[in-house]
Each structure stands twice: as C-alpha cells, then as structure tokens.
Write a structure and sequence with these properties.
With about 120 residues, the chain is of the alpha+beta class. Helix content is about 55%, strand content about 20%. It has one domain: K homology (KH) domain (GMP Synthetase, Chain A, domain 3, 2-Layer Sandwich). The protein is built from 3 helices and 3 strands.
Amino acid sequence: MARKQGHNRSNFEDKLKNEINLQLRKTIADPRLTMVSVTRVVLNNDYSLAKVYWDTYDPTKRGDIKIAFDGVTSKLRGVLAKTLQVRHTPRIEFFYDSQFEDERNIESLLGDSSNEDS
C-alpha cells in the first residue's frame, strides 16, 4: 500500500523555504543576496531536487542575484544538511519567481481596460 506523501512533502518544502531564508540572513555573507526572499520550494518525487523560487525588491539586480546564488549553492546545501538533520539533502536549483511582477502587469492591464470602458 502506497503512502500519501502530500502532507509530508508540503511540510518539508515549507521547512526548506524557512531555513533557506534564515540562512540567507544568518550565514551567507554575499551582499547581493540581502534583498532576496525565497517565495516557494518545490520538491521532485524522490526529494532529490529542490526547485527554490526567489524574488527581490530590486528587479534590476536579478542577474547579479542569479550569479550570487550560483556561487553559494554548495555552501547553502552544506549548511542545510547540518541544520535539517536529514539523511539526504536535496540538490538545490534557484529560479526567479516572476509571480508578483506578472500580477502587477495583469492588474495594470485590467486597470487600463476598465478606464477605456468608461
């Protein structure tokens, strides 16, 4: 009989998200990552890969932030291995989360269309 992993997966994703945000503030000394926030984490089926989605308050610095994440990924994974105390720490890949930017664009488009209807 197969186990339901939805609840455990969600809990572990939240734990990863919170711990990565904490470690970005606490142990990662790269100044390019100070204005970054992890918005969500998505694990694959066997928990070997964590897709970490991030956003920043300054969208002009996205390229620098991506380069900074590439440089600290292995260090961050090592810190997570120690703090989470799990048997296998997932490999981490970082992706820019354009959700909030897309939302603002949609709102502005909707605002423009409602002004045209008046």
